[in-house]
């Protein structure tokens, strides 16, 4: 039985070996190169040269502070009473104007419909037109003494 089993294995191998070899040698079509074109870039931002730059003025808070300088009492000799008299002098006071910037000045960009735009392309940058607000009366921030109202 051993010889017969060996013979069938040999016969099976002899039949299958050429089939496997021929199956491996089948010709295939050459693979065509696939050229993948990148999708077109969609511009979602708005070019800066089509926008209008608007200056938002600073928000300030103004007021006055009272500056007080203490004075020492003065001694004066009274010839009539023949004694020294202490004269209390009031403190020197003056009003000082002050201005505090609460929110600093900043720029925004708006489109034709005057809506604020935040997604801005910086391609072909040109200086846009600046619209400065008209201030009717400038703020007085100089620290000069002013006369006290009576």
Topology:
Layout: H1 2-24, E1 46-47, E2 52-56, E3 59-69, E4 74-78, E5 83-87, E6 92-103, E7 106-110, E8 116-117, E9 120-121, E10 130-131
Parallel strand pairs: 1-9, 2-10
Antiparallel strand pairs: 2-7, 3-6, 4-5, 7-8
What does it look like?
The structure is a single chain. The strands form four sheets. This protein has a four-stranded mixed β-sheet, with no helix packed on it. The protein has a two-stranded parallel ribbon with strand order 1-9. 15% of the residues lie in helices and 34% in strands. It is elongated, with a radius of gyration of 48 Å. It has one helix at residues 2-24; strands at residues 46-47, 52-56, 59-69, 74-78, 83-87, 92-103, 106-110, 116-117, 120-121, 130-131. The chain contains one helix and ten strands; from the N terminus they run H-E-E-E-E-E-E-E-E-E-E. With 150 residues, the protein is α/β, with parallel strands linked by helices. It has a domain at 46-67 and 94-131.
């Amino acid at each position: 039985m051993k010889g017969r089993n060996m013979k069938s294995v040999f016969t099976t191998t002899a039949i299958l070996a050429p089939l496997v070899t021929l199956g491996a040698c089948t010709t295939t079509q050459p693979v065509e190169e696939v050229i993948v074109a990148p999708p077109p870039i969609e511009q979602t931002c708005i070019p800066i040269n089509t926008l209008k730059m608007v200056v938002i003025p600073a928000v300030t808070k103004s007021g006055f502070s009272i500056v007080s300088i203490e004075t020492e009492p003065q001694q004066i000799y009274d010839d009539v009473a023949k004694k020294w008299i202490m004269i209390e002098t009031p403190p020197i006071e003056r009003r000082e104007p002050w201005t505090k910037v609460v929110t600093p000045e900043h720029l925004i960009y708006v489109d034709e419909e005057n809506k604020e735009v935040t997604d801005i392309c910086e391609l072909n940058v040109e200086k846009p037109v600046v619209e400065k607000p008209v201030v009717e009366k400038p703020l007085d921030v100089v620290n000069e003494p002013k006369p006290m109202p009576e």
